[in-house]
Amino acid sequence: MSDKPLTSEIVIEAKGLKKFFGSKSVLKGIDLTVFQSEVVAIIGRSGSGKSTLLRCLNGLEAFQEGSVRINGAELKTNNAQTLRALRQQIGMIFQSFNLFPHLSVGENLMLAPHLVHKKTKNELSTQAINLLKRVGLEEKFHAFPDELSGGQQQRVAIARALAMGPSILLCDEITSALDPELVSEVLQVVESLAQEGMTLLMVTHEMNFAKKVSHRVIFMHEGRVHEEGSSIDLFTNPKTTELKQFLSSI
Fold first, then answer.
1. For 147, phi and psi rounded to 5 degrees?
2. Which of 1, 59, 146, 190 has the smallest C-beta neighbourhood within 10 Å, fewest atoms?
């Protein structure tokens, strides 16, 4: 768990969040509050709604009921201007790296800031190099994604998310596509962000990492927040049968 002190400032607030895919109910009334500089891990079985929740918080999925506020501003998925403003505050990193294969690593990092912030090429390249240093890949500025390992590509994806200067990062199973020996290099970067005070909401199956880095862990089950608590309490003293069974199965 990070030793960074928490503030009382709420940066993510979801109330009564419901999401349907056709007649299938995926999120069944989620209430969630995340504070500035807090690290929250979301765990649960496949199909429990974890990734859908992150996508709703980032405006990638429209929800049918409830509300979401990011840094106090209401999320409206039908308003393109609101979504653009939101995406400058909240970055998202996916299971797949989603790098543009025809662009170099540096160009991948410079593209969005160029389109949105209209910085000069020198400013953009300096920022990209600094971000690559942050994830330990400054020597890969001119490389192309297919020349990198999976772990390196995911670290570039993290740097690209940071290029927009977000105050919040959503991480959706960012190590699940990696070979086991590459997982630690990505988790080290995430841990360093937590120690720097970045607000992190991460869906993960890396239980030891969740226990080590998170201030709070949320266990989702069948579209609901089934149990939550500090990382120590939740892993050492699970209260519900469902969480006990989940922890014993991993």
1. -95, 0
2. 146
| CATH number of the domain bearing residue 228 | 3.40.50.300
Closest to 153 (Cα-Cα) out of 82, 101, 214 = 101
Helix (H) or strand (E) holding 62: none
User: Does residue 192 sit within a domain?
Assistant: no
In the numeric block, the tokens 């409830």 are attached to 66
Q: What is the pLDDT of residues 195-236, one digit of tens each?
A: 999 999 999 999 989 999 999 999 999 999 999 999 999 999
Q: What is the DSSP letter of 6?
A: P
Q: Is residue 125 domain-resident?
A: no
- E strands, the chain, are 10-21, 24-35, 39-43, 65-70, 73-74, 90-93, 168-172, 199-203, 216-221, 224-230
Asked if residue 6 has pLDDT above 70, the reply is no
